[in-house]
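Journal club side-thread
Mid-discussion, someone asked how the predicted structure for our own chain would compare to the paper's figures. Pasting it here so we can look after the session.
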Amino acid sequence: FNIKFNSIFFLNSNLGWVVSSNGGMYKYNGINWAQVYSEEFKNGSFSYNDLNDIIAFSSDDIWICSNAGRSSNSQIYHYSNGQWTQTSLNSTLLTDLDFIDSNNIWALGYDGKVFKYNGVGWALIQTLDGGGFWQIKAINNNDVWVSSYSNYLTGSSGLWHYDGTSFIPNYKLTSGTSYGDSYAIDFISSN
């Protein structure tokens, strides 16, 4: 059997998780990896397909995004106080999560929908033109970046930048530069 791992996240050298395309989640304890089963996932009360990204603030505060399968609502799963909860977001494929802190979590949909969690609930921030959006990185709430690759709708690709008000498309690192496909982006700081 073949498993495609989609995302890995470590809190420290003794605690990490990986999520997979078959809906699996695996936990690392500093020595070994083991598949993690929760009652919600085992008994089918949560509907999911691929688990695409995972972030965590502690072993009791974990967030996962998934695709929607055949529906138009992707899922955000949150583990807190020993149980999982599920939130549907109107996007066919949530590709990435990033965070500033536990009250400022960003989610990106392949279809260009950008969502933000404010500690209470999720809100749609903006729908970017086109599709092919793959990764989001939040430095602070006024400095968020999105990468995209060529898509059949617009043919556009590259970087998008959020300045606290809206996303600016086709952001150029230097003048006269053009970009091909941008699948990944990461930052240490805004400088």
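Post-session note: The longest strand covers residues 5-12.
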